[in-house]
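Listing S7. Sequence submitted for prediction.
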Amino acid sequence: MTTPEQPQSIGPYEILETLGSGGMGTVYLGRHTETEQEVAVKVLSPSMAQEEGLVERFRREVGALEKLTNVHIVQIYESDESQGTYYYAMEYVPGETLTERLRRERQLGWEEVIEVSVQVCVALKAAHDAGIIHRDLKPGNLMFHEEGTVKLTDFGVAQVFTARKLTATGGIVGTVEYMSPEQALGSRVTRASDLYSLGAVMYCMLTGRPPFRGKSAIEIIQQHRYGQFDPPRSIVPDLPRWLDELVCRLLEKDPGDRYPDAYVLSLRLKEIPAKVRLSQDVGTVSDGVDSDVETVAAGPRELGEATLMRDLMRAEIERSQQRSPLGRWFNSTAGLTGMLVLVVAFTWWMWQRDSLTPEQRFETGVQLMKAADPDWRTIRDIYFLPLLDSDSDGWQERVRPYLDRISDLELESRLSLRGRFTKPRDDIERFVRLAREYERLGDRSRAARILESVIQLGGTDPRYAAETRVARQLLDSFNATDVGDEQPPALAREALERAEIAVREGRRDAARKIWKSILVLYADDPRAVDQVARARRELKDQGEPTGDTGP
């Protein structure tokens, strides 16, 4: 039975029901009148077909799908135009979307998330190898076939690497909850953009919600660009730490910090269950009891070093024997002799380290602290802390300055961008990290203002003495490069020029939007004082409220 909006037929297909609709068109379940094959028919409505850009994008979707043949990507059968209606017929996937699955189950187990993600990686690799970026990877575009296969669909906003841009300036296209920061900026997208979106989808599968949420699309976009999400493991403590780290790396702001491609990502995903099993093996051999995933992730670090080495060797030898000639060598006399030599050498090294006199231990720690990037954890735990067991030789007084310096290094690590995956302990730490993030993004003026405020609020509180000291050092480094010499933002200057042109052409609404946008983005930016003042004056002359009482 049809509805007034649902056609009875399109081309050679009888329309049975409406499956769904989106920004690019409507999808129907259809049946070929001759072969009786059931297909999904995607249609661009006649009213939308009047827009040349939309027709070009629709054709691009068809062209993208025609290139792809992969078990994890919906297959296109044919495309045509019927009485002004553009359509194409594609594989019908009986089942449900990931959105529907999550609505029913809220979140998925980590092993199932890996299984689903590996299949998506296969689909992305096929698309990327064909020169296609999906640009809108989200739960609604992932279909679960009744047989369990995951299929990627809807390349309606995919961008072919070699295709001509639809507009001169580009634009933001995609779903904001799963959009990469560079896509939010309207910048050129790459394979890494799809991997960011996959990371956001994985985050949603693991935790039941996307990494960033907000009251508006603009708020969510700003969070993708500048915000910090809670690591998945802080929400689901049972996750293996390797999976937590993988998702966090996919959600890096800088595309260069993500995985290089979908194939490498799939390999890293497949390694995680093996790592968990190996950790379980080690924990079982050492402790004689089963442990949950959280204990598994932490257990090996709690073992003695020699015991850990022995058990790791044993587990790896057993695995190697099953998969390569090297494993058989390990089981030979020569292999066992070689392993014995390694164990003896390791034991000798441990004995040598433990046999250091207190003075030798202290001097070694002092020398190691002189490195440009000292391994302060090892220096603290191996060389300095053992000296505090006895104060007979005044070790407390001699070691304390170095331990204080190590405390500063530990704090600097937490406050640095490398510490972004750990939850801030307090607001001071959160604001210093935010300042570092703005400095990394090139907005050093804003970073300096944040640091000045942090020092002002926390400087008199002894609880924050270390944090404010680090903030002051960071601010001094900014001042050394003269923050005040930063040039006015080119974007603001160029926008004012476009506003002038709009006024001359009688497009005052367009000019007002530009002036208001300058106030939103640059109202508190000292680099753009002149541009902000001018935008405010122009709005005032037009009788528009500016929201403040500035010049």
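Caption to Listing S7: primary sequence and predicted structure tokens for the chain studied. The two ends are 65 Å apart (CA to CA). The chain has five domains: 9-91, 95-271, 358-414, 416-485, 490-541.
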